[in-house]
Write a structure and sequence with these properties.
Strands 1-2 form a two-stranded antiparallel ribbon. The chain has helices at residues 3-20, 22-28, 32-38, 43-46, 54-79, 81-97, 100-106, 118-131, 148-165, 173-189, 193-202, and strands spanning 136-137, 146-147. The chain is globular and about 50 Å long. It is an all-alpha fold. The chain has a single domain, classed as Rhomboid-like (Rhomboid-like fold). 71% of the residues lie in helices and 2% in strands. The protein is built from 11 helices and 2 strands.
């Protein structure tokens, strides 16, 4: 069983439990104030395993499923089982790094909360774009596949817009920071990935 499928399974189970239990949701969500004032450091990670609603959950898991295996298989083929460790670091590093901006901005605000795997998923998506720029994804109701690099750009534009105006529990700013982490991590761990990206994109 792939690491991607295991992450999806854990996230689905945890999110469903949190949907049914407000106390679980409250203990796991990202809240910079609680991290700073009450040393609840686990919130840097656990927020990514719960979601605002079913649509939020299913979209994140569908995107992770669509791009995760490409990245995971590439790391495994390059580094064997060490590559699986790199893939886990990519995911966990993405979800941690994607909270840095919001932690700094909201550490004195007890009312700001965020949930969702979007930052970690964004890291995987942009890693996949570097590795396989000719990849694509199907999004209903669009009847044709969207190239992954176009999807990535649209994803960031939407996230920037929603991050400025949205009042939901979704950490839209995390998408951008997760993407940055995914690109940097991939460039540092996979030799020649950027030059290969340019070559594949222009051919």
């Amino acid at each position: 069983m792939s690491i991607t499928v295991i992450i999806i399974g854990i996230t689905l189970i945890t999110s469903v439990l949190a949907f049914q239990n407000a106390e679980i949701f409250g203990q796991l969500k990202f809240n910079a104030y609680f991290i700073k004032e009450h040393k609840q450091w686990w919130r840097f990670f656990t927020y990514a395993f719960i979601h605002a609603d079913w649509m939020h959950l299913l979209i994140n898991m569908y995107v992770l499923y669509s791009f995760g295996d490409i990245v995971e298989d590439t790391y495994f083929n390059l580094f064997s089982y060490k590559g699986l460790f790199y893939f886990i670091l990519l995911y966990l590093g993405g979800l941690l790094f994607s909270t840095v901006f919001d932690f700094g901005k909201h550490k004195s605000d007890p009312y700001y909360n965020a949930v969702g795997a979007s930052g970690a998923v964004s890291a995987v998506v942009f890693s996949s774009i570097l590795i396989y720029p000719s990849g694509s994804i199907f999004l209903f109701p669009i009847p044709f596949p969207i190239p992954s690099w176009i999807f990535g750009i649209l994803f960031l534009i939407y996230s920037a817009y929603m991050g400025k105006r949205s009042k939901d529990n979704i950490g839209h700013n995390a998408h951008l920071w997760g993407a940055i982490f995914g690109v940097v991590f991939t460039v540092l761990t996979i030799p020649n990935v950027f030059s290969n990206f340019i070559l594949l994109l222009t051919n």
